[in-house]
Amino acid sequence: MSDLDLSEFNENLFLRINNLIKEYNLICEGETVAVALSGGKDSVLTLHALKNYQQFVDFDLIAISVDEGIADYRQDGVDAASENADNLGIKLIKKSFKKEEGFILDDIYMNFKSACIPCGVFRRNILNKTAYELGASKIATGHNLDDEIQSFLMSFARGDLIKFSKYGPMLDVIHPKLVPRIKPLWNTPEKEVLLWAQKNNVPFHSAPCPYSSLSLRSKIKGFLNDCEKKNPEIKYNIMDSFNKILNFESSIAPVLNECEICGEPTSSDICKSCELKKEISEDY
User: Fold this and answer.
1) What gap in Å lies between CA 280 and CA 284, rounded to an integer?
2) Could you give the CA distance from residue 40 to residue 74 in angstroms, rounded to a whole number?
3) Where are the beta strands (DSSP E) in the chain?
4) Is residue 122 within 8 Å of 97, Cβ to Cβ?
5) pLDDT by residue (tens digit) across 61-71?
6) pLDDT tens profile 103-148
């Protein structure tokens, strides 16, 4: 990559992101957008890209980090999130499993088939509640092209049709208390995100989560990366097929109620977060 024209690369990268935001109307004038900022390369690029986009559209930008409680791992991400937010002059709201839920992931993960199950449930719950309390109209996540096709294949393999309603660059408003997600990096390959962060010397947390290797996503990611070595276009082809097959305004999206315990949106009588907390309290 010694012959990389960094200025041209950066310009094309941000142009693609800006065009996606415009095409799908991800951000509107006067909105407050909360970035889910883990400190990893994807969320960091999302923060920088939306800060850049403020020169075209007048909207407010805040960031939220969630410390799940993973020893010798998460603090580096929190530090990277803080450094980037400070450098860009963006307010960062820090939350943690310990303070919000009363436990850390390291203490409860063994009760589940995969640590990703409770981690995802509680992290999403905390992000949504925090964004809602802050008056945010959107939550911007760092999901890139690779993440999206991995999720698509995971749901396809599991036969989970309901999950298909969560794909696409923006999720519809399906409940007043559920802040919709937007994915500015939706059509940006992971390798370009990494290249951007490295070549621009942007601080980011690069270590993999110690629990991630046990997940189905990790296995599918490895499979796709191996396939890409022989067929460089395979990820774009999968995304293209995905776009043709799925309707982002699909009617399969769940009808949401409010949890009988905490009042958060849920497709059941009790939300997944409260359900898991009940299981944890019996063993914790």
Assistant:
1) 6
2) 10
3) 32-36, 60-67, 92-96, 138-140, 181-182, 257-258, 265-266
4) yes
5) 999 999 999 99
6) 999 999 998 988 999 999 999 999 999 999 999 999 999 999 999 9
**Please, where are the H alpha helices in 159-254?**
190-199, 216-230, 234-245
Using CB atoms within 10 A of its CB, is residue 74 exposed (0-12), middle (13-18) or buried (19+)? buried
Strands 265-266 and 257-258: antiparallel
Cβ-based burial of 118 (10 A; exposed 0-12, middle 13-18, buried ≥19):
buried
- Share in percent of the chain as helix, strand, coil (round to 5): 50, 10, 40
Structure tokens at 82: 């803080």
Helix (H) or strand (E) holding 6: helix 6-23
- For residue 216, give the amino acid letter: L
Q: Residue 210: helix, strand or coil by DSSP?
A: coil
Pairing, β 92-96 against β 181-182: unpaired
Nearest to 277 by CA among 127, 126, 70: 126
| 159-217: pLDDT as tens digits | 666 666 678 899 877 788 999 999 999 999 999 999 999 999 999 999 999 998 767 78
pTM of the model: 0.89
Sheet holding 138-140, edge to edge: 92-96, 60-67, 32-36, 138-140, 181-182
H or E stretch including 158?
helix 145-158
